[in-house]
Design brief:
Blueprint lengths: L1 E5 L2 E5 L5 H15 L8 H4 L2 E2 L17
Antiparallel strand pairs: 1-2, 2-3
Length: 66
């Protein structure tokens, strides 16, 4: 699980436990910090969730493949 706080917005991501999703996260974070967009790419949006029960992302559990 990864927690980011970017420009006042909490971002929780689950299942960042393989090389590909971690690399996607780093690529997106570099672009976001450089000002090249803040929207999560689909590969990360499917892993996003909010502790309050809202937000984008799948209902748990999600498939470990991929």
């Amino acid at each position: 699980m990864v927690f980011l706080y970017l420009e006042g917005r909490p971002i929780w991501l689950r299942r960042i436990n393989a090389v590909e999703p971690f690399a996607n996260l780093l690529d997106w974070l570099r672009a976001a910090l450089d000002g090249d967009g803040r929207a999560l790419p689909p590969s990360l949006a499917e892993r996003a969730f909010a502790w309050t029960g809202g937000g984008a992302g799948p209902a748990p559990p999600i498939d470990d493949a991929g």
